[in-house]
Amino acid sequence: MTAYEVNFDGLIGPNHNYSGLAFGNLASSRNARNTSSPRQAALQGLEKMRTLHHLGYRQGFLLPQLRPDVATLRRLGFSGGDRSIINKAARQAPQLLSMIYSASSMWAANAATVTPSADSADGRLHFTPANLVTTSHRAIEHPQTQRCLETVFADPDKFAVHQALPSQNRFADEGAANHTRLSAGYGERGVGLFVYGRDNRTNLSSLHFPARQTLEASEAVARQHGISERAVFLQQSAEAINAGAFHNDVVAVGNGTVLFFHEQAFEAQSQADAFADLSERLPLQPVCVPRDQVSLEDAISSYLFNSQLLADADGNLERMRLIAPTECRDNPAVNAYLAQLAEDNSQPIGDVEFVDVRQSMSNGGGPACLRLRVVLTEEELAAVNPAFMLDDTRIDQLQAWVNDYYRDELDPSELKDPDFLNECYTAYDALTQVLGIGSYYDFQHA
Which of 9, 174, 256, 341 has the fewest CB neighbours in a 10 Å radius? Predict the structure, then answer.
């Protein structure tokens, strides 16, 4: 069966700001309260999408979430019209504004976990929105994520969009940032590799930062998607978490039969067991980056493993490329390693493309954070809402929309201004008109 891996990137919204809310995300903390550029951020994201489109890949996008999320403030006891609520929150609880204006939903890798129809028990493509309960600003995302996925993947005969797991610490789920689908071909049955940070035996006192994904959450998603017998579970190392690898996709990325990872990414015994299991199911090709060539610190600061690992544009998994952030080119150790990697014919990664997503990187997410990978058959691809598939014309339209409605600069202190709420709403309303999708956002129904 012919199938394709399609990247659906998060379209960065007009609220892109640096509030530094994600404890354990070192880039986010380092740039907290700095002035951001929403326009530059969105244009950089769109140019990355255009780069993949021009390389021959199928490329889609997901809508920005409604920000500010005034509905959350209403649930927290504020009442009145939207502008009035922003004014009240600015006076009474200004710290809540950064939560309800958070830009974090732009990182579509956290939107959901995805299982292709070739793997699932019922032959449908499955999505489970991530509950993201570890951080308050992300925990509010999953209802809007579910709505977006149901809009893009609307055919219930082909797509199953589940509710998020219960919003409990026991089932903390961070989506595809901790999941990799491995297979010998996109249309062939594959294996779901679920990486978790903690289970009921984890010594939490050994962790300086939160272990955001639990084993029980990963097991629950595998059950939902009907792949429990095709799932492998692997524990992230405490060393990696403590170094700032808040998600597995900061220290590892996989595609096809290739797993590209840092030497210190996983707990040793868990890695040995998981790799043995994987090797029985498919011709696993581990590509381990040695710590003496690229330190864990350099890997995390450059986001080497938050590169997109892609098959050749024709789907050939024996020829692969990395879409890496320019920070990898600028880091001498990482750049030297990538040059060596591209010349190593013992593995299929032979090409590296650098992309500038510095606005996203400064907020703690790289090229891989910005996209949700979805394997689609030709029939399923035809059933995707065409408003969300990209070509040059659509990208041009979105770039023109960004230039018309986004600020050049945004300081987090400006979130208290109710006029900024109006700016965001006006931009979202114009976006739905560009896409021709009618009244999508809540305020459009008021």
Answer: 341
Extract the runs of DSSP E, i.e. beta strands, from 66-121.
112-115
Give residue 201's pLDDT: 85
**Distances in whole angstroms, Cα of residue 47 to Cα of each of 39, 58, 125, 294, 406:** 12, 14, 28, 28, 16
How far CA 347 is from CA of 148, 252, 258, 309, in Å, comes to 37, 16, 8, 13
- Overall pTM surpassing 0.70 (yes/no): yes
Confidence bin at 206 (pLDDT 50/70/90): confident
- CA-wise closest residue to 166 among 121, 210, 124, 216: 216
285-310 pLDDT per residue, tens: 999 999 999 999 999 999 999 999 99
Which CA distances in Å does 343 have to 21, 218, 336, 347?
A: 40, 36, 11, 9
To the query of whether residue 150 is one of the catalytic residues in this protein, the response is no
The CATH code of the domain that includes 364 is: 3.75.10.20
Query: For the stretch 431-445, what's the b/e string if a residue is b when 16 or more beta carbons lie within 10 angstroms of its beta carbon?
Result: bbeebeeeebbeeee
Query: From the candidates 137, 247, 262, 424, which is the catalytic residue?
Result: 247
> Three-state DSSP class for 252?
strand
84 CB-near residues (< 8 Å, 6+ apart): 418
Residue 202 lies in a domain: yes
Catalytic residue among 5, 141, 174, 216: 174
Do the domain assignments include residue 14? yes
- Is 353 catalytic? The answer is no
Ramachandran category for residue 169: left, alpha or beta (phi over 0 → left; psi -120 to 50 → alpha) = alpha
Q: How many domains does the chain have?
A: 1
**Is 424 a residue of the active site?**
no
pLDDT of the residue at 21: 58
Whether 333 maps to a domain, the answer reads no
Question: Residue range 54-75: average pLDDT?
Answer: 98
Segment 266-273 shows an average pLDDT of: 97
Residue 323 counted as domain residue:
no
Q: Each residue of 20-31: pLDDT tens digit?
A: 554 445 445 555
Strands 159-161 and 59-62: unpaired
Q: Which domain holds residue 397?
A: 3-233+359-445
Tell me which of 53, 225, 263, 369 is the catalytic residue: 369
